[in-house]
Amino acid sequence: MPVALVHRVVSEAIASAPAGVLYGLIADATQWPLFFPHYVHVERLGFDGAQERLRSWVISEGRIHSWVASRELDVARRRVTFSHEMTDAPIESMSGELTVHSLGDRSRMELGLNFTVTGDAPADLAWAERVAHATGRAQLDRLAWLAEHWLKLDDLLLYFEDTVRFEGSSDAVIDFLYRAENWPAELRHMRSVHLVEKIPGVQVMSVDSLADGDAQHTESVRLCFPGAGRLVHKETVTSALVSAYTCEWSVEPDESGLVLTARHHVLLQEDAIAGVLGEHATVADAGQYVREELSRQGRLVLHQARRHAAGGVPVR
Q: pLDDT over 90 for what percent of the chain?
């Protein structure tokens, strides 16, 4: 069997930001769904402080892709090396490194991607090189922008959660959350839900609802882990004040029974604040408005899920 040729693509970018800030953004991949539009979710499977395994779900060319990667974090050299344990055809293998070099008050990032293509068919190789160049360039440009706006981003990030406690069937709760296409019949703010599940456990959902009395349209990718009592989602089409929004629903036992929690993670859209809330509105005003609206909608789902748990009857 012929040995597959290893191809390499290198991308570079300069950022007007300290190297430490850039390295921090690269090292904490669990935050990438908030910062990179094409990332849906990153799950940390293991971490010992230097080596970690991650499973990532991303949207690329209209499809949802997932892979597991091993990463080694080298803080001293500000370098992260990685190797994909599973890839999508025609990519046979993928590895590389991302290094940050300090240039005083600026930094240079270098991303090297090494990959093999099954059979080295010219069309497949051209596609792989095009995607590697485009995604590498986009990732570095986004990292540079994030690092250059890091102090402002701190004010634009929101983390909060809502919980309900209940006794009853956790399976009924997860079933209710999973079958979101049935929500309009039970949740007064939902006008319509269209849900497609081509890959088991991966749902693409569009929702028309009422937010503060106004019509609102959002679209999401949902990843369902019913055996673990969890469901995570990321909005791919958001409301006006939101740049990125992810949420995790989870059912966990405690001393009084079961706890259902919705954990919200939001990156505000600063440029939209004046148009939505008025020219004198602040980032704090926008944060309060978004938090109250997401909590209001989330609590409606939480309390309806609790009612299903009490009855123990799955949604049909």
A: 73
